[in-house]
Amino acid sequence: MEGILLLNKPKGMTSHDCVFKVRKLIKMKKVGHTGTLDPDVTGVLPICIGRATKIVEYITATEKTYEGEVTIGFSTTTEDASGEIVSKKNIDRVINRSEIEKVLQSMCGELVQTPPMFSAVKVNGKRLYEYARQGIEVERPSRTIFIKEFVLLDERETFEGNQVSFKFRVTCSKGTYVRTLAVMIGEALGYPSHMSSLIRTASGKYTLDQCLTFEEIEEKIKGSNIEESLQSIESALFHLPKFAINDTLAVKVLNGAVLEIPTELKDVLDEPICIIDQNDKCIAIYAQHQSKPHLMKPIKVLVTTQ
C-alpha cells in the first residue's frame, strides 16, 4: 500500500497520535504525517503511507488554509483556548469592521513571527513546550513567513462587549503559527487575545471535503477498499515541474545517475524536478548539481525497481 491518506484530524489528538492509530489500522509501520497540527486543531492532515513517506517534506512545504476564531479580551499561556489566562482586559470601546479588516490586510505579505513557547520548535536540542512546562522561558528564533490572504468571515459592522470573537480565513506559508497571528491581531487592536478555535481547510491542493474521519477509514478497511481512497504520490508533487523520460533513461535514474540537464529544463531548475516514467509515475526527484551546473543529480529516488 502506498499513497497519501487524507485524514480529517479530530480534536484532542496530536499528529503523532494520528499516525500511531493509522499504523494500527492498516497494519503498516511506514506511515508519517506532513506537519504538526496542535491537539485542539482539526481538519486536513495528509498521512503518507509506504513509498509516499519519502515525499513528506514536499507536502509540508505547500501553503495551508485555515478557518479560525479570534477572541479579544484575554490572552493565554498557549495562545489558544487550552492555556491558562495570562492577561485580561475588558473591551471598553466599539471596534469597527474596517479597523479589523485593516489589521488583517496589514499582516498580508512577508511577516516575521516568533514561535510560541508552547510549540514543537527545538532550541538547544529540546522542544520549546518542554521548557514551557518547566516554567522556563528561552530565547526563540524568529522566522519569516508569508500570508497570502487574510479575510474576516463575519458580517457585523461593529463589535462590542467585554470580550469579542470573530472568525477569519487565512492562507499562509509553511511554518506559520496561526495562534500567534491571533495574538498579533489583538495587539494591533490594543487588547490581549487568543485563538479560540481553528480548523485547517486545505493543505496544498488537498481540501477538507476530500478527507476521511477515522470512522470512515475503519469502514473502508472493513470493506477492503481503503486503497481506493489514497491520493497518488504524483498528486502531492503537483507544484513541481515534470520531465518525462523513456525506459532506457529510467534505468539510469533508478540507479541514481547524474544526468545532463535537458535544454527544456534550463529555465526551471531553481526548484526540484519530478522525473516521470512512461507509466506517468514519478520515479525520482532531481535538482541542479551544486558544483556542476550543467548537470542534475537525484535528491530522492522513489523506487528501486520498475
UniProtKB/TrEMBL annotation:
Keywords tagged on the record: Isomerase, tRNA processing
Pfam families for the chain: TruB_C_2, TruB_N
One GO term of the biological process aspect: mRNA pseudouridine synthesis
EC number: 5.4.99.25
Gene3D superfamilies from the UniProt entry: Pseudouridine synthase
GO molecular function, a single term: tRNA pseudouridine(55) synthase activity
Domain spans labelled tRNA pseudouridylate synthase B C-terminal: 179-237
UniProt keyword DNA damage present: no
The reaction(s) this protein catalyses: uridine(55) in tRNA = pseudouridine(55) in tRNA
Active site feature: D38 (nucleophile)
Domain Pseudouridine synthase II N-terminal stretches: 23-178
Organism domain of life: Bacteria
Family: Belongs to the pseudouridine synthase TruB family. Type 1 subfamily.
Function noted in UniProt: Responsible for synthesis of pseudouridine from uracil-55 in the psi GC loop of transfer RNAs.
Record PANTHER family: PSEUDOURIDYLATE SYNTHASE TRUB1, TRNA-PSEUDOURIDINE SYNTHASE
NCBIfam families in UniProt: TruB
Protein name as annotated: tRNA pseudouridine synthase B
Organism: Litchfieldia salsa
Gene designation per UniProt: truB
